[in-house]
Amino acid sequence: MTVIETTGASPGLDCGGEARRGAKAMTSWQTNRATRDGRISAGAVLARGKIVEARDATRLLEAVIRPGDRVCLEGDNQKQADLLSRALLAADLSRINDLHMVQSGVVLPEHLDLFDRGVAKRLDYAYSGPQSARIARMLFGGKIELGAVHTYLELFARYFIDLTPQVALIAAVSADRDGNLYTGPNTEDTPTVVEATAFKDGIVIAQVNDIVETVPRVDIPADRVHFIVKSGKPFFVEPLFTRDPAAITEGQILTAMLAIKGIYAPYGVQRLNHGIGFSTAAIELLLPTFGERLGLKGRIATHFALNPHPALIPAIETGWVRQIHSFGSEVGMDDYIRARSDVYFTGPDGSLRSNRAFCQTAGLYACDMFIGSTLQIDLQGNSSTVTTSRIAGFGGAPNMGADARGRRHPSEPWLKAGAEADPDGATLMRRGRKLVVQIGETFGDKNVPLFVERLDALELAEKLNLELAPIMIYGDDVTHIVTEEGVANLLLCRTAQEREQAIRGVAGYTDVGRRRDHSMVAHLRERGVIRRPEDLGINPLDADRSQLAARSIKDLVRWSGGLYAPPSKFRNW
Amino acid sequence: MEGLKFAHSVRTRAGGTRQSAIVGVVASGNLEVLVERVLPDAECAIDIKTAAVGFGEVWTAVVGDFVERYSPGGLRFSINDGGARPDTVSLRLAQAVRSIAENGQ
After folding, report:
1. Dist. CA A184–CA A231, nearest whole Å
2. DSSP helix/strand/coil, A387
3. What is d(CA A475, CA A339) in angstroms, rounded to the nearest whole number?
4. pLDDT tens-digit map of B78-104
5. Does A411 score more than 50 pLDDT?
6. What is the percentage of chain A residues whose pLDDT exceeds 90?
7. DSSP bridge partners of B13
């Protein structure tokens, strides 16, 4: 047996007794604990028990946080510690400055105002959707020292190794007087952030919507929470995963039909993750109609790592979906989830329990397919959502859209994909492959082509002197590309040239597509590397909206038996 | 606005007996196609008025592929384009052929 972990827990083990006593006299092994206790004492002056009034939030932060601290200001994919963001922004710069923010989501304007004001200086993050344009300007303007843009799981991992927060500012639905927290359906990142902070001598401050006698369930135990601030209004949650079926185009429906018949069916994909775009929403809405007619019920799309997408309601109601584990929740889905506990993970209180770290792990190791859209794909299949004016970050896509090299359990789709990639390999020694599918239309918003000769991410990396271009999914992880032109199976490509032509072959009328080698593309089609709609028995003229199980948000409400309560911006009745 | 005209010789006449049909809508990112059975059987004409200027090369490719695939002999297509994407154009043209290929007036 090999010892692979060593520990510094026994200083001076080999030394004589005198030397050991000497070392003990000079070295303290509990300075962090002492510092933590000092911070708690400084904050306690403002607290009754653990509870601090909202008006004292800035003073609390000034008492507890030190210049240069690593701070996790809970900005998740959805849930935002907005009160604590504003409180931190108002801090006296002589007391708090040059913070190193380590948070998964940079979502609120205040998150970036911190850097403009000088409260914070350095940033390590994962996702910045709504702030993507401003974060790009600030990076170019030198306002932010960028550590790296991570995938969620990668940033969470670093919380436990080299980016452990000294202070975590988190958000929960309610707290009891001891400090037990109920995070509600949007638990998201909270357990991970608290684990890394509280167990490494850090301070955890929670903003809560309410203080109650007894919390509905304990998501975070009280001894990991040091201060509680009651917010005047509920924390902000962004409805990120609601796609209005009324906005789904015929092109997206065609692309979705190609994916179902050209990938889900032949591989028998049962365990998967969907991206949040309209193409995958179309797939969700085609399962009970097109999928049903193909006889695929029970054979595909039964187990998901997925947020509670409203577009999946018809497939759930028709018995397609057996189980869903979620990263976070979705606005308006609470009652529906509560009533469908056979499908979702729920707590003893009946509401959803989400957990981003566990769900990302599930997406990486227990799913056979990731399918999602992107903004740019190059000739090797590398993809990125970064353009020179927008840095949206990655979220979870690079994690779920990657082959898990540590995976050891077999499954039909994984083994089939592995065999396609390496047909001559020895069966018992051949790794399987995760199906990593990029789906999209050849032209996106404002006729911007999906396919490019060179990713904008490279130009950005050069301009910002980054050591690594922000690639969302590397080409060698991508197995299929689906557009309205057909399905390109990159597993079957044997040379870089074949791969390039397979990609050009589904790139339609973009410059990349029009520069294809017609004879080579025809040859790839004969080999089944490229499959056109007609090769799959799909008539593009059948791709119309009557195929969708729901054609509006109101249809989704009907499917849910009135349990889905869409946010007002999606109501037009 | 930009005007583009294409004339192609085709192998066969489009099926059906309808004299005209209209598909699509004039809207941003969409297009309206009026198709009329008014030409000799071996000819096809496509007239385009488009809001997006400078995409002649793409139109040439889209129209060429469409004519090759559907052989729409005897048909004149008049397009009002609101800057639709090429895949939408292809779809609307195919829908126009299907529409006029139906029997009736």
Report:
1. 16
2. strand
3. 41
4. 999 999 999 999 999 999 999 998 776
5. yes
6. 86
7. B73
Burial of A319 (0-12, 13-18, 19+ CB in 10 A): exposed
A377 and A383 Cβ atoms separated by less than 8 Å:
yes
pTM (2 d.p.): 0.92
How many angstroms separate the CA atoms of A460 and A306, rounded? Answer: 31
CA dihedral A179, A182, A186, A189 (to 10 degrees): 40
The residues facing A481 across adjacent strands are A438, A488
Element (H, E) at A457: helix A456-463
Q: Which two tokens stand for residue A64?
A: 């507890």
Question: pLDDT band at residue A12, thresholds of 50, 70 and 90?
Answer: very low
The sign of the CA dihedral A508, A509, A512, A517 is: positive
Contacting residues of A for B87, CB less than 8 Å apart: 251, 441-443, 484-485, 508-509
Tell me which of 3.40.50, 3.40.1090, 1.10.10, 3.30.230 is the CATH number of domain B2-101: 3.30.230
A541 closest CB neighbour out of B86, B88, B94: B94
How far apart CA A461 and CA A468 sit, in angstroms, is: 7
Average pLDDT over residues A439-459: 92
- A486-539 per-position pLDDT tens digit: 999 999 999 999 999 999 999 999 999 999 999 999 999 999 999 999 999 999
Of A149-163, A318-332, A390-404, A542-556, the least confident: A390-404
Q: Mean pLDDT, chain A, as a whole number?
A: 94
- The mean-pLDDT minimum among A177-181, A251-255, A490-494, A568-572 falls in A568-572
User: CA of B87, closest CA in chain A: separation in Å?
Assistant: 7
Closest residue in B to A534 (Cα–Cα):
B69
A247-557, CATH topology level: Glutaconate Coenzyme A-transferase (3.40.1080)
Q: Which of A254, A443, A514 sits opposite B85 (nearest CB)?
A: A443
pLDDT value at position A362?
98
Class of domain A37-235: alpha beta
Residues A460-474 have pLDDT tens digits of 889 888 899 999 999
Shortest CB distance from A508 goes to which of B52, B83, B87? B87
- Indicate if the pLDDT at residue A140 is higher than 90: no
B30 vs A: CB within 8 A: no
C-beta of residue A374 within 8 angstroms of C-beta of residue A472: yes
User: Residue A327's closest CA among A358, A289, A286?
Assistant: A358
H or E element, residue B79: strand B75-81
pLDDT at B104: 65
Residue with tokens 């500012």: A169
What is the pLDDT of chain B when averaged over all its residues? 93
| Cα–Cα distance for residue pair A505/A224, rounded to 1 Å | 55
Tokens of A93: 């710069």
Task: List where CATH 3.40.1080.10 sits in chain A.
Answer: 37-235, 247-557
Strands B20-24 and B31-37: antiparallel
A485 chain-B contacts, CB cut-off 8 A:
87
Q: Are strands A79-80 and A236-237 parallel, antiparallel or unpaired?
A: antiparallel
Give residue for tokens 């005198």.
A18
Assigned token pair, B28? 């941003």
Q: Is B22 on the interface with A (CB under 8 A)?
A: no
> CB of B91 within 8 Å of any CB in chain A?
yes
Nearest to B87 among A251, A514, A541 (CB): A251
